[in-house]
Known about the structure:
- This protein is an alpha/beta fold.
- It contains 11 helices and 10 strands.
- Helix 2 links the parallel strand 1 and strand 2.
- Helix 10 packs parallel to helix 11.
- It is globular and about 65 Å long.
- The model has no long low-confidence stretch (mean pLDDT 92).
Amino acid sequence: MKVTDHIQSGKKQVSFEIIPPAKGSSIQVVFDTLDPLMQFEPAYINITYHQSETVLMPRENGLLEARDIRKRPGTVAISAAVHHRYQVDMVPHLICGGFSKEETEDALIDLNYLGMENILAIRGDGDPLSKRFQPVKDGHHYAIDLVKQIMNMNKGIYLDEMLRNATKSNFQVGVAGYPEKHAESPNKHTDLAMLKAKVDAGASYIVTQMFFDNKKFFDFVNDCRAIGINVPIIPGLKPLATRRQLNVIPQTFKVDIPDELTREVDKCADQQQVRQLGIEWTMQQSKELFASGVPLIHYFTMGRVEGMVEIVKQTL
């Protein structure tokens, strides 16, 4: 079932985003994350994709050696395993960073064989040791190029131009939107224009980066509609969990923390109070979003479900 079919069902729904476990871990880590959440009958589950990272490893002579290590593999296999276990629709991510067009096509073929119908196409972050995003050789520079490749496969157009009468895939593609502007965009106007280009290229819906002020989401939706972006826009939320995240989240995800939330965190005596404040803040955000007519809210679990059950129980 496609994501937009869930959105059009007419009932309030949620979805959750999970990350693959670290290399060497068991898939039971994923099941332990999802088991408490499945009581809410999520519309779908997103699972992130991760490229290799450059890690500096010590050598016997005392020098450091740069090695590329993929710390969280398994997105395609986990998508199949989770779907089989829970009979829930899956939305695996595909990213530009770290993958060639050929590797992307191979992943799409695997997902198509497995009966997956949904993809979230994003550029992804660059290597942490690099100041700028750099695609691998013959890789995509931008998410729009990834969207176009998927749309071509839906038409039966593969990278091998010699193929004739190739099987058409049937993917619906979602893309990311940024209520507070992507960190690398020079301004909101440019950012919205790039988002519209992704929609015009074939994206069927948008899921937003996390935000902590609903007004920014509502303004973002209005700005999208004003330039002709008419696909569904799904709000993405993440509860604040620690005091340290007041600095980490803006640095990592380039989103603002509202003054009111910062002041309330400052009043907290310990991390448990911060965690509870984060739960209550996200709960109020969720209630307001549903009351405004939003049909589906997407929650970033980051592999953790502490508080998520409480939030969804109080808002669905």
